[in-house]
């Protein structure tokens, strides 16, 4: 009988240790879940901010494209270019006849 009680005591101790381990695991999961909930609550605001920043970046990119001036016949960033020194001479040379705008650069938006 004492052997049986001893077995039950050992088994009971093992079960208590397992339960304590499960409680700790559940507590850790609860903490992680709380942290995740906090992160999820912040996400809609961050998504709205990202959409706003993307819209601003797109607008700035479009504005940058509209502000670009393309002068056909004048090479950009050419070393030794006299565009800055004598722009009139450079423009006269570039646009003297028979200069034509390439078809790829012609405005096709007009009906």
Q: End-to-end span in angstroms?
A: 105 Å
The total strand number stands at 0
Can you summarize the main beta sheet? none
Beta fraction: under 5%
| Class of secondary structure makeup | mainly alpha
Tally of helical segments: 2
Series of secondary-structure elements, N-terminal to C-terminal: HH
Give the tally of structural domains.
2
Region (Disordered): 80-111
Secondary structure elements and their pairing?
Blueprint: H1 2-67, H2 87-95
What do you see in this structure?
This protein is mainly α and 111 residues long. It has 2 domains: 1-68; 69-102, no CATH class. It contains 2 helices and no strands. It has helices at 2-67, 87-95. The longest helix is centred in the N-terminal third of the chain and has 66 residues, at 2-67. The mean pLDDT is 81.
Which properties best describe this structure?
single chain, 111 residues, mainly alpha, 2 helices, 68% helix, rod-shaped
Short synopsis of the structure:
By secondary structure, the chain is an all-alpha fold. The protein is 68% helix and 0% strand. It is rod-shaped.
